[in-house]
Amino acid sequence: MNTVKQINKFIDHTQLKPEATAQDITKLCDEAIEYDLKAVCVNPSYVKLTKEKLAHYEEIKVASVVGFPLGTTTTATKVYEATEAIKNGADEIDMVLNIGFLKDWKDKDVEEDIREVVRAVRAETIVKVILETCLLTKEEKIKACNLAKNAGAHFVKTSTGFSSGGATADDIKLMRSVVGDALGVKASGGIKDYKTAKLMIDSGATRIGASKSISIVKGD
Predict the structure, then answer these.
(1) Which residues lie closer than 8 Å to 73 by C-beta, 6 or more apart?
(2) Which one from 38, 78, 157, 198 is the annotated catalytic residue?
(3) Active-site residue among 12, 38, 61, 94?
């Protein structure tokens, strides 16, 4: 990972602000097309619009969020959100695990929460599990990665971007050490420039979630 040209295919171009408008989403899609980014990540209500805007660009995936940003909705609610997003055109699901359950040692419930979402979507759908690492101890991060792996998820992801902290290189290294090559690792939250994005990739990330994607690709 040495050149700016390569980094574009690591990036999930993201717009999850509650005040985002259709115009903002259209701009997001136009930028993803112009810079040939990996995916566009939007809130569920904008999945249909995003799919329409990217209809002729199948190589750019549509991602949406589930149980976002707290992870505290019920499993049935997460399953419904995921299946609705897929029906509306999503290719990938970024779900938040139940952080309180994890801290309460309800490991079986956390794992089943993830597994039910994985089961509910199409086999080719990528499911990323958001750990919200800034709220977890090292031991909890390790446990969360293992639960996501056991449940059949495809990625573990650091952050929603809506809590008290974002991705760190140390967390990426830890997550990669736990999941090995079996899962992808997505760094998100606070990644605003090329230097930081490259650090995350060098630390083991295979995806970058960012709203400042263009600055990253341009090498700013």
Answers:
(1) 67, 81
(2) 157
(3) 94
For the chain (220 residues), the mean pLDDT of every run of 10, in chain order, is: 70 98 98 98 98 97 98 98 98 98 98 98 96 98 98 98 97 98 97 97 97 92
Other C-beta atoms lying within 10 Å of the C-beta of residue 159? 27
Please name which of 60, 116, 121 lies closest in space to residue 88, comparing C-alpha atoms: 121
Q: Which of 128, 186, 198, 212 is catalytic?
A: 186
- How far is the CA of 165 from the CAs of 133, 160, 168, 191, 216, in angstroms? 8, 9, 9, 11, 20
Rounded Cα distance between 42 and 66, Å, is 11
Q: What is the pTM of this model?
A: 0.96
CA 62 to chain centre: 11
Mean pLDDT of the chain: 96
Burial category of 169 from C-beta neighbours within 10 Å (exposed 0-12, middle 13-18, buried 19 and up): middle
Q: Which two tokens stand for residue 158?
A: 């650091």
Q: Is 94 a catalytic residue?
A: yes
Whether residue 157 lies in the annotated active site: yes
pLDDT at 5: 54
Q: Which domains does the chain have, with CATH numbers?
A: 4-217 (3.20.20.70)
